[in-house]
Amino acid sequence: MTTDHYYHVTYYSRLPSIAEKGLLTSAGGSGAIGQGGHQGHSTGRVFLATEFSAKDWFDTAEMIADVQWGARIGTVPVLIRVSELELDLRKDPAGEYEAFFVESSIEPQFLEVFNGEEWVPIEDWTEIDPTKGLEDAVEPDPDDYDSEEEYLVALDRYEDDDEREYEGFLLESPLFPQELR
Fold it and tell me: I want to staple 54 with a disulfide (CB 3.0 to 4.6 A). Which of 7, 24, 64, 132 is the partner?
């Protein structure tokens, strides 16, 4: 099956590896959105959405990240576009939303990521400001903690960009392209 574009939803923290190695077939669900629940089903596959289902998968990734890890820089969903490639696509019968899968990895040269303004080659992933997809972080209040030790741990996490927890994800993330909404 050939098309101009298919889409893959992932998390910001996974972009360095994807830029280097591409989209790799999952080794038992460890790279799948949500992991665990579809472990056997996702083994050896890369999942792709259409322009009609990409937003549903993006929103699902946000929901799962919020529940499993909280709203942090590394858990911000991002959208990858796969283009100019003939794919041996198969319809995913287990997909809640329209989805396809391929049973081969997709090399980085066929991947672009949306940086909040435009599509850029995956190797330019550092142009993305993941905080654009997050609500403001709130500095810990010492009165909210049972001990000074708990407060200091929370304050250390707040001061560490990678560990800082934000209030949540923005309802309409600018990291999802307007033309696909």
Answer: 7
